[in-house]
Amino acid sequence: MSDIATRPAPNLLANPLVKFGLIVAAIVAALALGVRLDTSNTFYAIFVDPFQQMVQAPDLLVQTVWEGLVSGVLYALIALGFVLIFKASGVFNFAQGIMVVFAALTLVGLYEKGVPAFLAVIITLGVMFALAVTIERVVLRPLVNQPDIILFMATFGITYFLIGFGEALFGGNPKQMIAEQLYLPKGALDLQILGGLVSLQKIDIAAAVIASLMIAALAAFFQYTRIGRALRAVADSHKAALSVGISLNQIWVIVWFTAGIVALITGIMWGARSDVSFALEIVALKALPVLILGGFTSIPGAIVGGLIIGIGEKLGEFYWGPLIGGGIESWLAYFIALGFLLFRPQGLFGDKIIERI
Amino acid sequence: MNAEPINVTGTPIRAKGEILLSVENISLRFGGVKAITDVSFDIRKGEIRAIIGPNGAGKTSMLNCINGFYQPQEGQIVFKGERRAKMRPHRAAAGGIARTFQNVALFKGMSTLDNIMTGRTLKMKKGFFWQALRHGPAMQEEIAHRRVVEDIIDFLQIEHIRKLPVGKLPYGLQKRVELGRALAMEPELLLLDEPMAGMNLEEKEDMCRFILDVNNQFGTTIALIEHDMGVVMDLSDRVVVLEYGRKIADGTPDEVKANQKVIDAYLGVAH
Questions:
Q1: How many structural domains does chain B have?
Q2: What is the pTM of this model?
């Protein structure tokens, strides 16, 4: 009589708690087995020793996390540039990295030609605006309604154009960022904590503060303004946006210009920590794992993803790196991202696609 | 005695109002495919104008030409006395043409309220600096527009879904939100592409009531595409019939119903 025979068997794995419990149990079992079989001490070196070090020297841990935090903030800034453009036009802008370099080079180059520092900043902003307008007119507008991959390839073109253009104008040699002239702080702040000395570079603190301010400003811009609403609208549906009178061309110029501003600030901060050279472009590729982690469409995702990658990378390098001879900082981020793709392809904060069918 | 003078065919007199929009000899091709061939008709101020025809007759293409999504290769569109060979979506919206889509096109991630607020985009003028600060003139402007939007939400009876992301709403409600967004533009001409497709009887009746109310209360001119003949005959003042991209009839519902070509197009004809 009852429908017991036809009812599907309860799927225990569908319950997240059960699933999580099973995973934890599996890890514990594997660890226990590992300890028993651990003859060459590798297990100890990987799973026990690093954590012992962390507890024994908390000041070193704080220092490492701080450094990770700072590079994380800068990764987040670069990722933010990607997210802005991806949200509004669905284009993965490969050129974001070179835009960072180009903005920084323009700023320094102008200063070297005798332009006062702050005037140089304003002129550089003007250059980024001109770049946004040019890209919209010359690249995006003729390619409207083309498949995404074509637009993606077009951003490769922009990348190589900017590399060549930048080198022709400013030369290929690394330059010194004009940090002092922009009144960015110098030196270090030494803190006596946890029985040790933790040294914080003032420029890093400034970078963290400025990045936070900018992110807050962007969030307010997106949330509360007519243009912010229009940006989100364009991201969702081009034709619906057009039908309410939103001009796609105007929106594209705005996002590319905003991405240009973000690029300039990123360039100043990165440049102040090392120097301004085309090598920065490689660093910008770190934004890719950040985006995979945080989701391509989420501003909070870019920030959290950036911090996770930054901190994870530094901790990995410092505590686990020596086990395999160091140098894992350059690939660990991609490794983490790969693991993430398996379990949460839309990222931590990415839009889960809502589709009613 | 009658509030509204009725002429012999049962059409309200207002259908004789001045011409708001007319399309003249429009032809649209996609490569070798002729979507529309030499079609002309007009829409008068205050009327409800239906465009009907079998599938693939070019109805949606016609709407797309009117609001500038497609640029016809031949012919012209005269809107409020301005003659244009090409309409641009932005210019159409600024000129007072709003529309809905056959398969709803909403901003799925945004709330009902935000979706309808986008309809106010062209009406908001204050600089975004003030808006970002949420102070001063921009705040007053936002509040004023918000009031209009709340009125529309009341009008469409969708208060209960104000804050929900529209992607999660059932189809019938999505169509209503889309109508709300179009209304927020306070359009002079409202283009509705199958506003009742996929709805049940009750939802259809609601939608019919909204369309009539919009037309009566705000005096908005409406051009609509619809397949439900009962709805078309009840709602519209005049009907234009397309088949294979050509106009085969144009007139009051009764005239169109009696037209032999229309009967053939819908029922098929023995060869």
A1: 2
A2: 0.77
